[in-house]
Amino acid sequence: MKQCSKWMFAISVILTVALAGCSSKPSDTQANSAASQPDSGVTAAQGTVSGEISFVTDDEEFTGRSIGNAQGYYYVDRGGGIAANLRYIDYASKQDIFLSSRPEGDHFSPEDESYVASVAGSGVVFPLGDTLYLVRSGAPDYLNDYGSEALAAIFTMNLNGSERQELYLGSASETFLSTIAADDENLYLVSVDTQTENDVPVQRRCLVQVNRKTGEKKTLTELTDSAWMIGASGNYLVFHSIYAETGSETTAPAMTHEIFVYRFDTKSLSVVKSWPQEQMLTVKVYADTLVTADAVSKTLTVQDLESAETKNTFSLAEHMPTQEAKLWFEECRDGKFMFWDYEHETLSAIDLETGEWKTVTLTYQDPEKQEARPVEIYAETETDFLVCYDKQTVMKQSINLAGVLDQSESVQPCFALIAKEDYWNSVPNFQKITFNN
């Protein structure tokens, strides 16, 4: 079948977390035990949610996508080095601009609000209220080359990019994963501390909270060593882990997936779903539910997170006519679970309450893969989606690894706003966004 970059990304994630987490599968008891052991030297947090908790990034690692707000969408535009620029898509003017008070200024100098000296590892930016947050995941291996610019960090600034301040700076052994949740007082992140034991690097993952005003970091619980956050809802943070079961000299280790939750009220971890790799499940968190698509049995299950009760089960067979047991471009939007039908080159969407189907025929021809792709949703407001409706090759300037301003060709998403009603009815009324280089 046709290949895609998402497939390569998924494989890389599986390999990364599998190699990092080669212990045997923990039981609920082991998970709860981990939750009761805070990081030594760090005060255990109270573990209460302040206001509504929400997910502020994409649920896949290191895509760079995050939430916007009603006025626009922010993103990190990185070149060939560790430096980057903050960009802003203004919904009112339909402009994609540098987040700078000087439209005609030098956007590649430290004096410009949009310039970021380092997003070593990766960078993601998101608005919360009247504050914009920039999280750098960090790359401590490059500490000798870049000093503190290689460390994990969190920055705050005004929504226009002004008055940027360092809220938190990590240690020489710490990195952050890129999936993040927040409430009114704190950010919630997965912190990875890597120490060398007997000449072997050993990772220790913890769920941490960072106070949005003071930058104080507290450890809530130790996580399994291959866990990443995939969602937030009510009183829960939801995680995915992949474990490599013990193999033999002639057989590869079996891979086991688990979904587990952290409960703020009990300060505990518990497993809510487990399956072998060959079962090919896709799990998404949507509102207060866990949405599970089984590509082998071709069924969709909607499960209440609080009670674990199954709310709905639907067949996907009608829209998965081939034997291919893999879902592509899957996500939940507007109360629907969506996935890409390669055979018919359309998006299929099923309502999580009624089971009613919608087929979205909006596509574009990917210039790199030379194949049809769905018009992808990046963000949304109450009435509109921000989508990538095409891709184009443009000449862009950036700072390279040598710290020199360079110009090169780059594939840039073509963004547009589209009314949700038009999107679901496959009406290409794109309100195109102008990219300002």
Automatic annotation (TrEMBL):
Keywords: Signal. Residues 1-20 form the signal peptide. It comes from the Bacteria. PROSITE patterns: PROKAR_LIPOPROTEIN. This is Lipoprotein.
